[in-house]
Amino acid sequence: MRMSRNNLISFLCGGIVCLTACISLGSDDAGKVREDRPVVSSMTVSPEVPSAVPFCGKLIDITRYNMREAYDRELSSFTYFHSTTLLLFKRANRYFPIIEPILKENGIPDDFKYLAVIESSLNPRATSSARAVGLWQFMQTTAREYGLTITPTVDERCHVEKSTRAACRYLRTAYEKYGDWAAVAASYNGGMGRISGELRKQDEESLFDLWLVEETTRYVYRVMAIKQIFEHPAKYGFIIRARDLYKPIPTKDVKVSRDIPDLAAFAKEQGITYADLRRFNPWLRDRKLLTGGKTYILAIPLASDLYYKTPNTRVHDPAWVVSEN
């Protein structure tokens, strides 16, 4: 029976994982693995936890028991939550080229792009049970405080560029307060008031010494863990080809200063569907657009670019992919 190319790749990958596991084990354990002959094509191996991890230009020692175990939890979760983690890479190929220059322009460390990854899974239309919305998961009050417009027909929390700029304003304000990027990241989840209050009440100076609610406690470790996997995907078993990544789709800008009573009709005039208009402009929240005297820019994709007639070849980070040669 002939083995298909995909099955061969799966078999080889599984064999490599098994071999790696055997090499890393002692001779007795390796012998036991060979003797038991796994009936699956891969093995579940606990990822190695380093003694220190980099974040925003600083090497953070995680040998303390609680820090090591917290990091191990998140690294293991992302490593074996295969479908979700794969999807993050695919979406990042489309959104990181937009996010990274904005972070750099505003003096925010590049590592903060991973906040968007864990906040929304890089879904501009994500909505939480607490009604946080968008790529950066802004609550309505905070969004308005940092310059985003929210009306019955517009929600700029779902605008990739504008919400990223708003997130930068928040992050810069928090850094002026703490002078520590890890504390800034935690405050993005827990709020500056809570982080400041707990530092004072617990008489501590470091974020990592605080007792916080579980979600906020896990937050920074999640950011550091997904950063590790994004920078070394093959090490954690993610074998990705260029054609697997979602291609960036170019658009043209159409400025609108007048109300659009029927966005479906407007879309037809632009040569696209109403559905595509909403997908490429997720900040639209109604069938009409009321400008309120403002000028908005609508992104209009070219119809010819909406198809995967040829495999994707645009790779934002070469470290993500393996050669197909």
UniProtKB/TrEMBL annotation:
Q: Which Gene3D superfamilies match?
A: 1.10.530.10
What Gene Ontology biological process does one annotation of this record name? peptidoglycan metabolic process
Residue ranges occupied by any Transglycosylase SLT domain in the UniProt entry = 98-204
> Which molecular-function annotations from GO does this UniProt entry contain?
peptidoglycan lytic transglycosylase activity
This protein's GO cellular component annotations are:
membrane
Q: Which residues form a coiled coil?
A: none
Q: Name one Pfam family in it.
A: SLT
Write out the similarity annotation.
Belongs to the transglycosylase Slt family.
Q: What is this protein called?
A: Lytic transglycosylase domain-containing protein
Species annotation: Candidatus Parabacteroides intestinigallinarum
Q: List the lineage, top down.
A: Bacteria, Pseudomonadati, Bacteroidota, Bacteroidia, Bacteroidales
